[in-house]
Amino acid sequence: MTGIDVIDNDSILVPWNLECSDLFSSCYEFNTHNMACWFDKELEKKNSARMLSLIEQIKNRLNEINDGSFVVENLETERLKNL
């Protein structure tokens, strides 16, 4: 996923990352609404509370395991809060 072993091999992070990714990916539809790729903004809003919760858990876990080999930059929380 990231190429950073301490993150990619963390048994706590992996399911949270996968769930968050699945929630975001579920907003995409292909060959619908007369478009090749359509993004369902209403579904994203519906999923945003769970995604925000997962992101918070992920951030906390990253802080716990950070050995100084990576920097966390969170670009999603504010965007999701503003939906």
UniProtKB/TrEMBL annotation:
What is the protein name stated in its UniProt record?
Uncharacterized protein
Q: Which organism is it from?
A: Fibrobacter intestinalis
